[in-house]
Amino acid sequence: MADKGRTDKVKGKAKETVGKVTGDDRMKAEGKMDQAKGKAKEAVSDATDSLRDRRDER
User: Fold this and answer.
1) pLDDT value at 2 more than 70
2) How far apart are CA 18 and CA 12, in angstroms?
3) Strand, coil or helix: 1
4) DSSP for 2-56?
5) Is residue 30 within 8 Å of 14, Cβ to Cβ?
6) What pTM did the predictor assign?
7) CA triplet 33, 18, 8: central angle to 5 degrees?
8) Inter-residue contact 15 to 33 (CB < 8 Å)
9) pLDDT at 30
10) Residue 15 burial (10 A CB sphere; 0-12, 13-18, 19+)
């Protein structure tokens, strides 16, 4: 499940860039939040995969 969170990170980076170019601080902040959400989703997915791997080893 490597794609979990990737969409949020890409969308967030785009929003942050648009916010920087246009001087829209709110858009920049939304972009950073989307990126953080994407990173969190990836971390949860990685942890879940790790636990499944450990379970399958038994």
Assistant:
1) no
2) 10
3) coil
4) TTTTHHHHHHHHHHHHHHHHHT-HHHHHHHHHHHHHHHHHHHHHHHHHHHHHHHH
5) no
6) 0.80
7) 35
8) no
9) 97
10) buried
The reported pLDDT for the residue numbered 40 is 95
What kind and span of H or E run contains 57? Answer: helix 25-57
Could you give the maximum distance between any two Cα atoms of the chain, in Å? 54
Q: Report in angstroms the alpha-carbon separations of 9 from 6, 30, 31, 51, 53.
A: 5, 11, 8, 24, 26
Handedness of CA 4, 6, 7, 8 (dihedral sign): positive
User: Which of 2-6, 9-13, 38-42 comes out lowest in average pLDDT?
Assistant: 2-6
Structure token pair of residue 58:
């038994």
